[in-house]
Structure formats: structure tokens, C-alpha cells
Amino acid sequence: MASQPLADGDRVSDILSVVAAAQAAQEQSREPLPIRELRLGAIDVVATRELTRNGRFKNLRSARNTIGGALARRLGLRSLLGFDALLADWFRYGSLELEEAVLQECGTDDQRTRVRSVFQTREYVVESDGRRWILQRRGRYGTLASGATLRSIREQTFDRLRGVAPCSFRVVDGAPEEWHLDCEDGEWTQLLAGDP
Question: Which ranges of the chain does DSSP label H, i.e. alpha helix?
Fold first, then answer.
């Protein structure tokens, strides 16, 4: 887990800590975990850590309630179900909505840098499931695109990922290949050549 201490007294530290803890838990799992379970486990990890730091909270229950409540309240969401939906979309599809919501709460460049470091993973994988080629975000389980041939999924991937640059994708079945895109208006660069 990327559990370096985050600065106290700002609107994003607890949110980033929970997102990082949920990401670490998901990456350690061999299959997708329910979002609610990920959130609750991450809140426990962060609350326990914060309870032992600087006496910020008087007990674990207070820490859990404060940190859990901050997830929805600070992002202007009606409930934790809204946070869960944003987290699920980020995990499954690489959605930028959660990152953008947290960035809106940042007041300093340091906070924006910390947000980007938590959400920075923009690596994707193309692989065959035996019937078709699929595009997924590395460490995620939702299918972003699929195609009957490697050529068709490669073209879909070029178009689909342009909006999340900088990013890269790797074809892991057959002849390996890797592609990288620095910016939305840039050109895809082939880093490792596979079959055409």
C-alpha cells in the first residue's frame, strides 16, 4: 500500500488514504472484491493508522465514522453509495470522475500532486480470453473493449485510450507488443514490436 503519511488538516488526505488502501487490497486479491467491502476495509486501515498518530481521534469508532463520513461529504455526494459508485468505476473502467472530484477539493499544488500520484496508474493490457481479444486496465477486471482480432482491438484501444493519456498498453498473448501515448493530441509510439 502507498501508505506514506499524508498531510493533516486538508480536505483530501483521508480520501486519498482510503483510495490507496482500497487499491492495495484489490491488487492483493486474485478476483474482484465487492466495492463496499473494499471501502470498509480501507476505512479500517486508515482509521487504525490515524488513531495511533498524534492522537487525532479518541477511539477507533470515532476515527471510522469521521473518515467514512468525509468520503461523501467532502466530495459533495449524497451518501457513501455515491463514493462507492465512483470508486467502482475507477477500479473497473479507469474512469476519471473520482480523481476529478478529489482534484476539485485541492487547495494547493502539493495536494494536486498527491492526488495525481494516487491515481497515476494508466497501464492497460490486451489479451485473448480464447474467443476474443479484450482490453482491461492493469489490475482491474472490467472489459473496456473487445474485438475478434488483435488488429481490431488494437485500433479500438488507440481510440479508446486517447482521452486518458498519458497511458500505455501491452499485448500479453501471442507476440508481445507495447504502445505508449504521451498526450491526447500525440501519436502512439510502439515500444515493443509484435506481429502486425
Answer: 13-28, 35-52, 60-73, 80-93, 97-104, 109-118, 150-161
